[in-house]
Amino acid sequence: MQNLFECKVKYEKIDEQSGKEKKVSETYLIDAVSFTEAESRIYKEMESMIRGEFVVTNIRKANYTEIFENEEGDIWYKSKISFASVDEKSGKEKKVSNQILVLASDVKDAFDKIHEGMGGMTVDFDINAIAESPILDFFPYFKGDEVNEEIPSNLKPLSEVQPTENTSESDSEEN
Fold first, then answer.
1. Structural domains in the chain?
2. What distance, in Å, lies between the first and last C-alpha atoms of the chain?
3. pLDDT at 146 over 70
């Protein structure tokens, strides 16, 4: 399960139209284990993207149940979907709502990507809202099979570690 955090970053940016510096506040989504790790990771990501000083002004938990990325998309859209669920105790049908974040080129594309991403779902769902999100980028914890953190040089993968004699003797005694 992902722990997602929305991080607001404030810094000075040169306005493309006027050429003057202006203060901007931008929102990024980070997948992290805790608030502390989210803060650490957003600082690392922003150091590589922003020249000059910046400050992280806010970090809050995000409540997205799914994130659909799309290489052709350039805007993050927040969508609210709902579906019917049956309460096992009372037997009554209730509506369950979820927030989904989708990267798309426009609202129609976001609508299509949600249907495409939810295609394997066996229950019917309704898309109640699709709106442009303030999120500019998403930094997942894993990129493919790789963890985004650099592994310290004093650590080795298990495949490279040779078992010691004590370990193999204790293993054979247990068998």
1. 1-62 (3.10.20.10), 63-134 (no CATH)
2. 36
3. no
